Task: inverse folding
């Protein structure tokens, strides 16, 4: 079995992370008809590596990037019991490496980082029709919380 190494992303990882970002967008397009069809970007991966409130991690197998994910510290709404929480995003695993527990290992490290920053709750967004992702997050201990609704006019 290949050894999986989870580490903070570096500037040398940016080209691969930009490719991973397009993988996320491609995977999400079927769930969101409002996404533009042209080349779009969700993340500022260069900034994410230097922002003190963000931990961007990558997974390596045999010195090759196999996945990524980040946690971002966010101020909680004033009416919540907690002052801040962490938000997880940019969770991606290369198709050839799925099923190896990479996503879970990245989440575990992001949970540790979040806890070390005084966070007691982690949140994320996932499309409600993305059953594979929902199952993966439930395996990691997440529970469904809210459903965002919309209507086109």
Result:
């Amino acid at each position: 079995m290949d050894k999986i190494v989870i580490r903070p992303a570096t500037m040398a990882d940016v080209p691969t992370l930009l490719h991973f970002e397009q993988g996320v967008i491609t995977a999400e397009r079927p769930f969101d008809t409002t996404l533009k069809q042209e080349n779009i970007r969700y993340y500022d991966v260069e900034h994410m590596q230097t922002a003190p409130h963000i931990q961007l991690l990558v997974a390596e197998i045999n010195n090759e990037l196999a996945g990524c994910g980040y946690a971002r510290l966010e101020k909680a709404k004033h009416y919540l019991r907690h002052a801040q929480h962490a938000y997880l995003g940019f969770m991606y695993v290369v198709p050839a490496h799925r099923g190896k527990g990479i996503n879970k290992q990245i989440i575990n490290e992001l949970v540790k980082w979040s806890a070390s920053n005084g966070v007691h709750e982690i949140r994320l967004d996932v499309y409600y029709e993305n059953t594979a992702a929902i199952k993966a997050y439930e395996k990691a201990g997440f529970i469904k919380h809210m459903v965002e609704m919309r209507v086109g006019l």
